[in-house]
UniProtKB/TrEMBL annotation:
Family designation: Belongs to the short-chain dehydrogenases/reductases (SDR) family.
Native source organism of the sequence: Drosophila rhopaloa (Fruit fly)
Record carries keyword Oxidoreductase: yes
Entry keyword annotation includes Protein biosynthesis: no
InterPro entries for this protein: NAD(P)-bd_dom_sf, SDR_fam
Name of this protein: Dehydrogenase/reductase SDR family member on chromosome X
Keywords: Oxidoreductase, Signal
Signal sequence extent: 1-16
Native organism taxonomy: Eukaryota, Metazoa, Ecdysozoa, Arthropoda, Hexapoda
């Protein structure tokens, strides 16, 4: 009898854990959606274990770099805010591309004394999911700065309801990937001017461990036939890695002093989970998830750490190399996504800064 009760308790506990950690607040409606949720549950557990296992190496050493200019998308909350804090501590000029520049500056001012820091903060308007906004932001950067040392493609959304952007692209694909693909293309000339022998300019794409279950649906990139938030999110995160790998191949062929890396910041307690069921049990996130400060470490590590100089195309997690999707190890798969994206945006020569 006692054994049966313990078994029921265990099953009930697993069921509650599943219900309160779903990617969406709604109940799965098909086997495809159930399967997606089970995969997310598995990756979530593996991710939490990885974060705990490699906590000791999840560090970044900050050092003064007053001559460097860093451009970051987002940064007014969560991981991005703590990234900006660290870059300012390095005395850099940090340009934030955000939807609301005034509130972004206030957010940074709440954790950094902007009157005494030797770093310089500039907040400009950018909606990375809007291609016109991306173009206008890039043009502003080009007019004001002859070089860009760091580009951190950080802004993103997660598990959002279906929505098409003004340009006609699904919001995860547009915001997490395509807008950054375009921004990188437009700013690559400035990055190439900044890089030099032994001191590469760096591009950092902020991805996620869920790239492991991602699939690029070329026949229905917007997911209009069957949309599920978790699927759209993992597709956009896989796209970032395929993009990173192929872009590094092109940069190496040109012998450019620019490297691009991609980062999984960890399972982090941020507002990105606002559409998920985890909001019902905030104590769970507080207990087991990384803080935004910890989540920012590997991103900044990828941007400034000398130990990975010349190691572009690497997927980083918790201060070291991490596992990523098998497709990203196949050059043809990486090139396919790269060319598909270039065709969507009608980019004939990627990286020439023209659009």
């Amino acid at each position: 009898m006692l054994g049966s009760l313990l078994w029921l308790f265990f099953v009930g506990l697993l069921l509650c854990a599943f219900l309160f950690s779903k990617t969406t607040k709604e109940f799965p409606k098909s086997w495809f959606e159930w399967k997606t949720e089970f995969r997310y549950q598995y990756l979530g557990i593996v991710g939490l274990v990885h974060d705990a296992q490699y906590a000791a190496r999840d560090r970044v050493a900050l050092y003064k770099q007053p001559d460097r200019i860093a451009v970051i998308t987002g940064g007014n909350r969560g991981i991005g805010l703590r990234i900006v804090e660290k870059l300012l501590a390095c005395d850099m000029t940090v340009v934030m591309g955000v939807r609301d520049p005034r509130s972004a500056e206030s957010a940074v001012a709440s954790i950094v004394d902007l009157k005494t820091t030797k770093g310089k903060l500039i907040c400009e308007q950018l909606d990375v999911g809007d291609l016109k906004s991306v173009k206008a932001f890039a043009q502003l950067i080009k007019e004001r700065y002859s070089k860009v040392d760091l580009l951190l493609n950080n802004a993103g959304i997660m598990f959002a309801p279906f929505k098409l952007t003004a340009d006609g692209y699904e919001s995860h694909f547009a915001t997490n990937f395509l807008g950054h693909f375009l921004l990188t293309h437009l700013l690559l000339p400035q990055l190439k001017l900044a890089g030099k022998e032994g001191k590469n300019a760096r591009i950092v794409n902020v991805s996620s461990c869920v790239n492991l279950i991602g699939r690029i649906n070329y026949k229905d990139i917007n997911g209009t036939k069957h949309y599920y938030p978790g699927t759209a999110y993992s597709q956009s995160k896989l796209a970032q890695i395929l993009f990173t790998r192929h872009l590094q191949t092109l940069l190496d062929a040109e012998k450019s002093h620019v490297q691009v890396n991609v980062v999984h910041p960890g399972i982090v307690d941020t507002d990105l989970f606002e559409h998920s069921a985890t909001t019902s049990v905030p104590i769970f996130k507080k207990l087991f998830f990384k803080t935004p400060e910890r989540g920012s470490r590997t991103v900044v590590f990828a941007a400034i750490d000398p130990s990975i100089e010349g190691q572009g195309g690497t997927y980083l997690s918790n201060g070291g190399k991490g596992p990523f999707h098998p497709d990203a190890k196949k050059p043809a798969k990486c090139e396919q996504l790269f060319q598909f994206s270039s065709d969507l945006l009608k980019i004939q020569q990627y990286g020439n800064g023209e659009f």
